[in-house]
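Lecture notes, part 5. Sequence design as translation. It can be helpful to think of inverse folding as translation between two languages: the language of shapes and the language of residues. The source text, in structure tokens, appears below.
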């Protein structure tokens, strides 16, 4: 059943994989389906238990031009202190930083089970020579990254160079080896549900362990519609191959209700099997304090 393509020599192997899926998705149908989920289901998940779960799915992110070693060190220390101050609450899933800070985080982080995610491959544009992307990814891992977030080469995708897009993703997955690799689709640039579905399928066949909506550097970022299409693609891929792929909405998740909406879409499309922080992550630079404030019942700026 499993359809791992990496060892096949066929020149059009990824186009062939794409042809196994219906990628002619209607934007209008997606909008209607999302509207229905939001109207009928989101309220069921607006509760303390879900908010606690969401805290444990957060990829605590700092990807700022102003980041420095001191700031990243302080950022990591807050995660260490969180575990001491709130032992009954789930700690965040990862700390997500630029590769030049992987060493700082890995030398400072004291909490077991918090992964170190590094954006790589010339984040956020992905516009660099593959050799540079390979080197950056290898160095991030050498310095302690336990997960890698790369950006799909969006320009190549929009030009229809699907084999090149997939070969590049596959090459970077080879560098990652056992380390989990997330592929950011930058769904705001893909515009249509059909493109988002195609990019999702292509990334999964090329070796993505997670697919991720956005870099957070472009608008629109993680929309419920993009999340819906990506979750559908993950489900169809799982049904066909038996391989479970994670989902990471990221970028522009600014309110607790944004997070609950993403949770609801995952629950409705993918089901309970994806509702662990191994398979569902939220990349955010703003949500951790808001979620914590709601969980503890008063405003806090811990992170
Ligand atoms: O990967 C995570 C995103 O870059 C975070 O985006 P954000 O700053 O809009 O929350």
């Amino acid at each position: 059943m499993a359809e791992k393509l990496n060892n096949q020599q066929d020149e059009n192997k990824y186009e062939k994989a794409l042809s196994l899926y219906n990628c002619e998705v209607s934007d209008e149908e997606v909008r209607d389906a999302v509207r229905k989920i939001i109207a009928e289901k989101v309220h069921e998940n607006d509760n303390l238990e879900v908010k606690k779960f969401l805290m444990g799915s957060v990829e605590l992110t700092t990807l700022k031009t102003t980041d420095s070693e001191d700031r990243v060190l302080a950022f990591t220390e807050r995660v260490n202190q969180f575990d001491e101050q709130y032992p009954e609450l789930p700690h965040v899933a990862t700390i997500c930083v630029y590769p030049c800070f992987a060493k700082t985080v890995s030398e400072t982080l004291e909490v077991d089970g918090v992964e170190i995610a590094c954006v790589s491959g010339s984040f956020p544009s992905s516009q660099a020579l593959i050799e540079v992307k390979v080197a950056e990814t290898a160095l991030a891992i050498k310095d302690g990254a336990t997960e890698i977030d790369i950006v799909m080469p969006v320009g190549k995708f929009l030009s229809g160079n699907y084999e090149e897009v997939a070969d590049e993703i596959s090459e970077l997955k080879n560098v990652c080896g056992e380390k989990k690799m997330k592929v950011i689709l930058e769904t705001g640039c893909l515009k249509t549900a059909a493109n988002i579905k195609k990019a999702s399928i292509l990334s999964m066949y090329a070796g993505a362990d997670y697919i991720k909506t956005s870099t957070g550097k472009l608008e629109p970022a993680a929309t419920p519609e993009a999340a819906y299409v990506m979750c559908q693609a993950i489900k169809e891929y799982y049904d066909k191959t038996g391989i479970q792929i994670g989902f990471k909405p990221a970028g522009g998740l600014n309110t607790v209700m944004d997070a609950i909406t993403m949770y609801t879409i995952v629950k409705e499309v993918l089901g309970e099997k994806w509702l662990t922080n191994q398979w569902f992550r939220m990349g955010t630079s703003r949500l951790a304090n808001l979620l914590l404030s709601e969980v503890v019942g008063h405003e806090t700026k811990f992170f």
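The translated text above is only one of many valid answers, since several sequences can fold into similar shapes. The mean pLDDT is 96.
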